[in-house]
Specification:
This protein starts with 7 loop residues before the first strand and ends in a 10-residue tail after the last strand. The protein has two domains: 48 residues; 219 residues, Rossmann fold (3-Layer(aba) Sandwich), CATH 3.40.50.280. The protein is globular. The protein is built from eight helices and 13 strands. Helix 5 runs parallel beside helix 6. The strands form three sheets. Strands 8-7-9-10-11-12 form a six-stranded mixed beta sheet, sandwiched between helices. It is of the alpha/beta class.
Length: 296
Amino acid sequence: MDIKIGDIVGRRSYNFDVAFRVHDIVKQNDKIIIILTGLNLRLIADAPETDVIKLPASKINESIKNFDGRVEKLMRKLAKRATKMVSPRLYRIEGQIYKRPGKVLHIDGDKNYLDMCMKSYKELNIDAIGRVVGESEQPKVVEALLLQFNPDILVLTGHDAYVSPKQASSPEQRAKDLNTISNYVNSKYYIESVKLARKYEPSLDDLVIFAGACQSYFEGIMEAGANFASSPERVLIHALDPVMVCEKVALTPINQIVPLKEVLTGTITGLNGVGGLQTRGKYRDGMPKSLYSTTI
């Protein structure tokens, strides 16, 4: 077998619809199983060795180009909006204002995704701290990290997938399957982490939480206490969707409610992939600007 960890591959049975990175190669009952994570999408999957094909460079470039084009367009729009949001307004004394967007703590199960997100936060001038923590380990560290960094916004994400146990025989059976936590690969860890974060800070306005990944158990995560979560229609979400939500929350003034429809439709995936509740913004103006500090 010429497939190695880190290779970019596709699944023959799905007509190579999603580009994956090989995360692990395991042996199960004398068969080789390839563990896959989405190249741009927060999806985890597995496939038999015979179904996995290494993608040619042209196919990889095509996949990256298709996503990058949409992302770049959105990022330009966000950067322009961010510049407008943090410009002096309200006060006549020029140069006396300092600006404090909301601070983000982003806990991600995938280093490649986190690197993409941290780069985007930097481009948007958002103060963000990133930590790579596997999904199953996130409940074990979330409280300590909240205590250490005291963020305004918490992101809990990585990979996930909905695995239906069988073909639903009726709408009622499908609804039951969709509301069964064991049918999701990592949703239980996001739910547990959100509950622990809400134990630390119960207020939805004092700590804003985004949680979930591709096809995550949206209703369960929201009921646990998240402000925003994926995925209402169990669709695949883009690696940068959490950043799109955080940008709007971090740069909306504290005395305003984040425009809910605007923030959700402003993500790469849209309303099918991300949902949430009315939430107060986390941006503050302050004055006077200090002569002795670079941060205020």
